[in-house]
Design brief:
The complex is a heterodimer. By secondary structure, chain A is of the alpha+beta class. Helices cover 35% and strands 22% of the residues of chain A. The longest helix of chain A is centred in the C-terminal third of the chain and has 19 residues, at 450-468. By secondary structure, chain B is an alpha/beta fold. Chain B contains 14 helices and 19 strands. Helix content of chain B is 33%, strand content 23%. Chain B has helices at 28-41, 52-65, 140-156, 180-187, 189-192, 246-259, 268-280, 285-294, 299-305, 309-314, 351-362, 386-399, 416-419, 450-468, and strands at 73-78, 81-91, 101-106, 125-127, 130-132, 164-169, 196-199, 203-206, 212-221, 223-232, 236-237, 318-326, 332-333, 336-345, 367-372, 405-410, 426-428, 433-434, 447-449. Classes of the chains: A alpha+beta, B alpha/beta. At the A-B interface, helix 6, helix 10, strand 12, strand 13 and strand 14 of A face helix 6, helix 10, strand 12, strand 13 and strand 14 of B.
């Protein structure tokens, strides 16, 4: 996943937190989990040389060994993308009317070159309290925890009111690749339909000593949308400039768009985020956050909070010029000049509303402004309900006592965008904590804290059962 | 020439229509000239597939047939540009102490596609009182006239008092091509040394009914200088815009360049031009010209005269942005934004001064301004030499009685820019008249009225005699 880090926003000096306490798990099932995790990490699922299909088959074998019937498991892929497959598994609930809880994780990983890494990226190595290997964190830790949860519940014969579904998919890490989550929503939504889905997308924060500072729960993503702004002109020879000029018309509009500030918006998620962050931040900024939660139109509070570029972006739709082109020769007046405006739209903000504001900001009716590239769906953010958020906090109080939980809105790069658009509210589950140095996610020597992984597993096993009861 | 259209007569009210004169049968000397002119037009000299060298050799054979010795003729080309050659011919004068006169023209033509033209661009067709074909106007009429004049001189057996030199070169139409005039100035300065040169750049204007409405001698031209603006920024991810942005910084600079107006300047040429125009322009433009001549700081008068883009450009240095480029990805904040500023400097303007003016106008140290090669020499306007201009005016009164005669400054550049540094003041000769529609110069279906060529030839031949004998 591509993250919107919350760590940077937190003040460094915070009250000491109680360390994560692992709920007891038996040595046997811990070994079983570790074996599953190892098998998944060691199955190369990079786009260039790996196979998600093979990884899905291996997980299916484990599920069947735990007692799942063939009919409970759907392995899928398309003829055009035979190695980019996935699986959906279902654990039936006791109440036919209760909707399912969906556990979503992606099994593909970012490319990793052996010669660049200290260790083989596709061999799970435990060293100095860390598991090393590509995908140890993103996202095979979660895929393994979810699959292991399905195995343990089946093995124990646990009866839960709600069905639990597991979807392991491919293609999350590569923009133009086949995306399994998108494919499921479009082709077999019934396989994955659920009351809500738990996904990657949130990270908590730790201090330098490795103690948890805050948990995160992601609810809602900003929506990526490019716009093209363009000016045209009859042009002519540059030795005789005309009063009107495509480049200048565009430049003037870009200056105005650069000055334009989209209005402050709040969702359940960002209200929750700023309420919790105000406590951690304190002072003038914390007070301004609370004022803004009470009244998003408070311009003075907005000015204070928006000093931070990340908070500024969380409070509104942002649009910024990222590319510029115009003219065809040094000595000719430009006949065309255009720019790409990259917008990150607040969840639920319609494209036409953003376009209308860009047109107004540009202030020049002779320019054209149109959405360009892929037209993104603009689903409303999933509601931060008591059932989802309240339960997550209550269970966290047992596993991570004293650690607050911050709702987070990301910039829109997980598979959650497909599910939210398909009507399945999708949340980035709490439980994981970001390494201060990023943990090598998407980079070299990716790693995952051993203790952190087990704590996350224990928390999620507890949380999922609580949701499903 | 790079800019063909004359400033003249741009806003002169069309006089009462005169009945077009019936075509007169050509004299024997005119038929001989026409054959030479036709052969020159039909020798393709475009950069892509033509050969200036071939055209030069063809003209050399005509000169030799007329009695020129091999020693009088220099054919030149460089090994790197074998097809971009030219010719210098010398007709030695009777008075060895009298300084030579140089007749300059260019052989190359702008590209022309047969498929786009109504007739074959490299076949000279006479139709409806016009010669059609690429180069019929720019610049093969004048090149053929200069060659024809030398041939007639030779055939008459009477040498001029002053030595006459003719240089016909390649590369005038293409900025980055090999330029024969530049090469001669740098490598064969003695061969072309002269007291002054007659070149393209002057001329006259017909109204729609082919009645001459104005004519002029071009004395001086603006120089071209390109500048590069660069704005840089650390950039970052587009989901979290920073307060500063390279594109916005550049856009602000471009708005400043656009808003900046260089001050009104006059030199002898443009003073003469506007004095003449003030007599023929409609009210209130005529009065505004008079006021501006008296006081270049008269803002109200400037506003009226500068409404016409040609007058606006004649009154000052102009700078206009012609190319812009920025950014490297739609989803990344731009790290670099650049623009080309194309300036046409009033004669005598130091490009470093114009750079300083741009820097002051932009007033933002984050945006750098630098000169883009090639850096042209500072244009020095030739003096208003009565020994040259007097005969031009006097003979014009004979051939074109009652037609206003003035001095003009080109807003674009000709090869004259290369002769100025070696001390040859260069004048754009009057004589050839163009139509209000621009005659397809540089465009489609280039054409010139037969009577323009024939009367222009008579005028120029007599002018050369008057100056040289």
């Amino acid at each position: 996943m591509r993250l919107f880090l919350t760590a940077a926003m937190l003040a460094a000096a915070l009250p000491a937190m109680v360390s994560a306490q692992a709920a007891p798990s038996s040595a046997a099932d811990t070994a079983s989990f570790r074996s599953l995790y190892k098998e998944l990490v060691e199955t190369n699922t990079s786009l260039s040389a790996g196979s998600c299909t093979l990884a899905a088959e291996r997980m299916a074998t484990r599920l069947k060994a735990a007692g799942y019937a063939d009919t409970d498991i759907r392995l899928f892929n398309t003829p055009e993308h035979p190695k980019e497959g996935g699986l959906v598994a279902t654990l039936a609930g006791t109440d036919a009317k209760a909707k399912a809880i969906l556990l979503l994780a992606h099994i593909d990983v970012v490319e990793a070159k052996r010669e660049d890494w200290t260790r083989d990226p596709f061999v799970l190595i435990e060293e100095n309290g860390y598991f090393y290997g590509r995908g140890t964190s993103d996202d095979k830790s979660q895929a393994a925890i979810f699959t292991d949860t399905m195995v343990r519940l089946k093995t124990a014969g646990t009866k839960l009111r709600h069905p639990i579904k597991l979807a392991l998919t491919c293609g999350e890490e590569t923009d133009k690749a086949f995306n399994g989550a998108e494919w499921l929503v479009k082709n077999h939504k019934d396989w994955i339909d659920a009351e809500f889905a738990l996904n990657e997308g949130s990270v908590g924060t730790m201090d330098k000593a490795g103690k948890p500072v805050a948990l995160g729960i992601q609810a809602g993503e900003k929506v990526y949308q490019d716009f093209r702004i363009e000016a045209t002109n009859p042009g002519g020879h540059s030795s005789r400039p005309r009063p009107d000029n495509a480049i200048y018309a565009l430049a003037a509009a870009l200056v105005r768009i650069g000055q334009y500030e989209f209005p402050t918006q709040m969702s359940d998620t960002t209200r929750g985020y700023f309420t919790e962050t105000a406590k951690l931040t304190g002072g003038e900024t914390g007070a301004a956050m609370l004022r803004l939660v009470g009244n998003p139109a408070d311009t003075e509070a907005n000015a204070i909070v928006s000093r931070d570029a990340t908070w500024h972006s969380m409070l509104r739709t942002t649009c910024v010029a990222t590319r510029l082109d115009g003219g065809h020769a040094n000595n000719a007046l430009a006949q065309r000049a255009g720019a790409n405006i990259n917008c990150r739209m607040f969840p639920g903000d319609p494209i036409e509303n953003v376009r209308g504001q860009l047109i107004k900001a540009a202030g020049d009716a002779s320019l054209s402004i149109e959405a360009s590239g892929e037209i993104s769906p603009t689903p409303p953010p999933p509601p931060l309900t008591e059932r989802v958020y309240g339960t997550a906090k209550a269970v966290a109080a047992r596993h991570f006592p004293g650690v607050p939980m911050l709702p987070a809105m990301t910039t829109g790069a997980t598979d959650g965008r497909y599910l939210n658009a398909g009507g399945i509210p999708t949340y980035g589950v709490p439980g994981r904590f970001a390494e201060l140095d990023g943990g090598g996610v998407h980079g070299l020597n990716e790693r995952k804290s051993v203790a952190g992984l087990y704590a996350e597993r224990d928390y999620l096993f507890d949380l999922i059962q609580t949701y499903a009861r | 020439m790079t800019i063909k259209a004359l400033l003249l007569a741009a806003i002169i009210a069309a006089p009462v229509l005169a009945a077009p004169a019936a075509a007169q049968p050509m004299r024997p000397d005119q038929l001989a000239f026409k054959a030479l002119y036709k052969q020159l037009v039909e020798t393709n000299t475009s950069l892509s597939v033509g050969s200036c060298t071939g055209a030069a050799e063809m003209l050399a054979s005509h000169l030799k047939a007329a009695g020129f010795d091999d020693a009088d003729i220099t054919l030149f080309s460089t090994p790197d540009h074998p097809k971009e050659g030219g010719i210098v011919a010398v007709l030695t004068g009777r008075d060895r102490k009298a300084k030579p006169i140089l007749l300059l023209g260019h052989l190359d033509v702008v590209e022309a596609k047969r498929s786009d033209w109504q007739r074959d661009p490299f076949v000279m067709v006479e139709e409806d009182g016009y010669f059609y074909g690429r180069g019929t106007f720019d610049d093969k009429a004048q090149a053929a006239i200069w060659t024809d004049t030398l041939i007639r001189y030779k055939q008459s057996g009477k040498a001029p008092k002053r030595t006459l030199k003719m240089a016909l070169t390649c590369g005038e139409e293409t900025t980055y091509a090999f330029n024969g005039a530049d090469w001669l100035a740098k490598n064969k300065a003695d061969l072309i040394a002269a007291e002054f040169a007659l070149n393209e750049g002057g001329g006259g204007r017909y109204d729609a009914s082919a009645k001459p409405v104005g004519m002029g001698v071009q004395v001086g031209e603006k120089t071209v200088q390109n500048y590069t603006l660069v704005a840089t920024n650390p950039g970052g991810h587009a989901s979290v815009p920073r307060p500063d942005n390279a594109i916005t910084d550049l856009a602000r600079a471009l708005v400043a360049v656009n808003t900046h107006e260089f001050p009104v300047q006059f030199n002898d040429t443009t003073r003469g031009f506007f004095t003449m125009m003030s007599k023929v322009a409609p009210t209130p433009v005529n009065m505004a010209m008079t006021a501006l001549l008296a006081n270049p700081a008269d803002a109200a008068a400037n506003a009226i005269v500068s409404q016409d883009p040609m007058f606006h450009s004649t009154l000052r240095t102009t700078c206009v942005s012609t190319l812009v480029e920025a950014g490297h990805a739609n989803n990344a904040l731009p790290q670099r934004a650049t623009a080309n500023i194309n300036c046409r400097m009033f004669p005598g303007t130091d490009p470093e001064m114009t750079r300083a003016d741009l820097v002051a106008a932009i007033a933002d140290p984050k945006v750098s301004v630098s000169l883009t090669p090639p850096i042209r020499p500072v244009a020095v306007s030739p003096p208003l030499n009565e020994a040259v201009l007097g005969p031009m005016r006097r003979i014009a009164a004979k051939y074109f009685p009652g037609v206003p005669f003035g001095t003009t400054m080109s807003t674009g550049a000709t090869d004259a820019i290369f002769l100025s540094p070696i001390g040859i003041p260069t004048y754009g000769a009057p004589g050839l008249f163009g139509d209000p529609d621009g005659n397809g110069v540089h465009g489609l279906n280039e054409r010139i009225r037969v009577k323009s060529v024939m009367s222009g030839r008579d005028y120029l031949d007599e002018l050369v005699h008057a100056l040289a004998d």
